[in-house]
Amino acid sequence: MKQFSCGAVVPGCTATFTAETEDEILGQVAAHAQADHGMESVPDEVVAQVREKIETV
């Protein structure tokens, strides 16, 4: 199981995502970034930051 806390990249954000795979986490994060942070797409450098902060739980 994988987990990512958005606050690890966006200070103050309390959203947390859990999924079986890293790709599932990235899909959830992309939807969250659009809905809650107003990002139309997630830049490669942000994807890299997210990947670095995904933990195995």
TrEMBL record:
Entry superkingdom: Bacteria
Name under which the protein is recorded: DUF1059 domain-containing protein
